[in-house]
Amino acid sequence: MSRPRKPEDPARWPVPCARCNQHHQIVANWPDGGICGYCYQQAKRTRGACRCGHEGVLPGRISGHPACRRCSGVKLNVDCRLCGAEDELHDGGRCWNCTLGMTVERLLADPSTGAIAPELVPLADALKSMKRANSGLTWIRQKHVTTFLQELAVTPSVTHEAVDALPKSRTREFVRGLLVEHGVLPHRDVYRARYDEWSGDALDRLTDPVNRDVIRRYIRWQHQRRINQMDQVSQGTFLRSKQTVTVAIELLNWLTDHGIELGELEQEHLDAWQTTGPSTRLIADRFLSWAIKTRLVGPDLKIQPHRRGTSPRMNAKDQEEAVQRVVHSDEFTPRDRAAAILVLVFGQQIEDVVGLTWDDINVTDELCHYPDRVGRDRSARPARRAVALSGG
Q: Reduced to 3 states, what is the DSSP secondary structure of residue 49?
C-alpha cells in the first residue's frame, strides 16, 4: 500500500515533481525530470507490458505511458539477486517474495534438524505463495504469529489435538484452516470443537465448586450429548447452547452471591433474580427444566417462558388519540412529530427512528418512503400522510 501523501510544501521544495507536479522532496532525477519520493515508490511498483514487448516493472514514462528501463532510460535496480525476477526490492537486494519465503523457512524449520518437517511443507508452500507478499510478511513478523509458527515447528506430530494444545488465538485457527485446506489435517466439525473448548472455559466463571460440577453435568448430558448426535453442528445450535449455559451460570452465581444453595432455591428467589435482569434470563427455563428432571430443585418452580410478541399493544382508539395529541401539540418540532408518528402508526423501534436522516427519506410526487433500515418500505402513502401531518 502506498504511503499517504503529506501536504505539499512549495516553500521547502520549490521545484515540483515532474510527474505529479506537487512540491515534495525530489529523490531521483530521471529522463522525464525530478521525481518525488511518492512517485518513485509508485514507479517501482508499476508492472505491465512495455510497447517493446518487455513484461515486468515499468518505472519510466514515454508520452505519458509506462515504459521499461531500457526504453525510458530510467536507471533503477529492481532485479532480485535471488530469483532474478524484476520486482520491488525489500531487503538485501531480495524481492518481497523471496524475503517472505526465507522468513517462512526460518520459522517453520525445526532447530534440531534445520529442516521443515514433511507434514508442514504444504503449510510452508501456502504461506510462501500469499498473493501480497508484503502484507504476508507484515503479518508473519508479528510477535504472536512468529511465536506460534516456531512452536508449531517443534510439535512432534501435527494433529488437531496438538494444535489445540498451542495457545488459543485467531492465528491458531487461521493456520489450522490452512492445514485442513492443504490436506495436512482432516476436516472436523468446527462448531462442535469450538463448543467443547468454550464449555471448558465457561466452567471457570462459576464461583462455587459445587455449582461448577452441576454445570459440568448439565453441559455433558444436556448439550454435548445432543451435539455429538448431529452429523454437522450449525452456528445456530452452537450459539443457542452457549447462551443457555451462560444464563444458567449467571443464575447459579447469583444464588452463591446471596448465600443460597441450588437445592434451597424457592420461587421467590427465582422471581427476584428474573425481575432484576434482562429478558434473556427467561432462557433459564431450559436449565430449570433439567434441574427439576434431575431432582436438583423442587418440582413446582417456574419461569415465564420466553415468547415473542407479548408486549402490550395500543387499541385503535388509544392509538388515534395519541396520534392526535402529537399532531396538534405545540410542544413538538416537525421532526419530533414525524418520529412519534413512525413509532405510533408503524410500530418502529425508537433507536431505528432516531438514526434516520433526511437523506434516508425518498419523496416523489406520489410517494414518501423510507428504507429497510427501519423496517420494510411501508408503501409510503401512509408515510406521506405522516410527514404531512407532522408539518414536515
A: strand
What φ, ψ does residue 133 adopt, rounded to 5°? -65, -35
CA distance 285 to 244: 9
**CB-based contact 90:41 (threshold 8 Å):** no
Span between the terminal Cα atoms of the chain, in Å:
47
The count of other CB atoms within 10 Å of the CB of residue 339 is 20
Instruction: Give the max Cα distance, the chain.
Output: 91
Which residue, 214, 237, 219, is CA-closest to 291?
A: 214
Per DSSP, the three-state class of 355 is coil
Neighbouring residues of 20: CB distance < 8 A, sequence distance ≥ 6: 36, 38, 39
CB 267 within 8 A of CB 224: no
pLDDT beneath 50: ranges in the chain: 1, 308-311, 372-392
* Exposure string for 65-77, b = 16+ CB within 10 A, e = fewer: ebbbbeebebebe
Cβ atoms within 10 Å, residue 350 = 11
Q: Write the single-letter amino acid at 109.
A: A
Identify any residues that bridge with 89 across adjacent strands, giving them in sequence order: 95
- The Cα 345–Cα 352 span in angstroms is 15
Amino acid symbol at 174: F
Q: Using one digit for the tens of pLDDT, what is the confidence trace for 35-56?
A: 999 999 999 999 999 999 999 9
pLDDT digits (tens, 9 = 90+) for 326-343: 777 777 777 777 788 777
Residue spans of the domains in the chain: they are 1-76, 96-188, 205-293, 316-390
Asked whether the beta carbons of 47 and 58 are under 8 A apart, the reply is: yes
